[in-house]
Amino acid sequence: MTAAQTAAARPLWHFFMPPLFVLLWASGFVVTKLGVAFAEPFTFLLYRFVIVAVLLATIALATGAPWPRTWRFAGHIAVVGLFLQAMYLGGVYTAIARGIPAGISALIVGVQPIITAVVVGPLLGERVRARQWLGLVLGFLGIGLVLWNKLSLDIGQLEGVAWNVVGLVGITVATLYQKKYCSQMDWRSGGVIQYGAAAVATYVMTLIMGETGAIHWSRDIVIAYAWLIFVLSIGAVSLLGWLIRRGEASRVVSMFYLVPPTAALGSWLLFDETLGPLALVGMAVTVFGVALVARR
């Protein structure tokens, strides 16, 4: 059966799953802004990681999920958790808590496909195409326009941008490490290990950052936790696993350039965060640059 015949044989709703995943992923930036208004970023993350680890452990045991056969494999999974959960999410949450708009935060970490293809690719012996170099230039030019127009770049915002860069490094390393060492990981049992390791690291960060550990409970933070835990940590991750098993991961990657504008739109609707004309041009330039790199 040809690729065209295979695509034609799929139910129509299958084609909406990759954009649905991208939409859910983008919503995480918006909901994070809601949550960090009531708790310090690493404290907020710590509660999320512990709850998700417990829920995934329950799911793994109830469904008979396979666990890693060796401690070495379990260690690799834990390393991914440290980079993907603690470092990436910790960077993003702290950046948003420092006043970086959700759309800009999504834009900065959204250049990860460019970093992976153009900067890290040559280290792995992969050839970099001309359009990928062009995507690199456009991506960072666009970010420069956004930051120049939107941010005053005082000490607090510079710190926020730096935390976004930490998150960018985290997701880049995690993506490469997981591809090399953890491609066979079961999302249920592997998630328990990842979130468990991330919870330990996040607790250490609450001490290093001098956070009080206080959470101001309200309806909004409960909504934020419910969305981030059930819709993102469990629902979106399950959906991604489903897409990977059906060979749709490349479609997800090729659509990731839509995350920043989707997050910016959500922030405008919920929090009235606006971008000026020059910032919108910069976002469009960066999105186009990422699309050049990510498209098949």
Q: Spans of 5+ residues with little confidence (pLDDT < 50)?
A: none
- Which bin fits the share of residues in helices? over 70%
Rg (CA only): 19 Å
Order of helices and strands: HHHHHHHHHHHHH
Brief rundown of the structure:
The chain is an all-alpha fold and 296 residues long. The protein has 13 helices and no strands.
What's the SSE blueprint?
Blueprint: H1 3-9, H2 17-35, H3 41-63, H4 71-97, H5 102-109, H6 112-120, H7 130-150, H8 155-181, H9 187-208, H10 219-245, H11 249-254, H12 259-271, H13 277-294
Helix pairs in contact: 2-5, 2-10, 2-12, 3-4, 3-9, 3-10, 4-8, 4-9, 5-12, 6-7, 6-8, 6-13, 7-13
Task: Describe this structure as you would to a colleague.
There is one protein chain. The chain is mostly helical and 296 residues long. The protein has one domain (41-294). The protein is built from 13 helices and no strands. The protein has helices at 3-9, 17-35, 41-63, 71-97, 102-109, 112-120, 130-150, 155-181, 187-208, 219-245, 249-254, 259-271, 277-294. Helix 6 (112-120) crosses helix 7 (130-150) and helix 7 (130-150) packs antiparallel against helix 13. The longest helix has 27 residues, at 71-97. The radius of gyration is 19 Å and the shape is globular. 45% of the residues are buried.
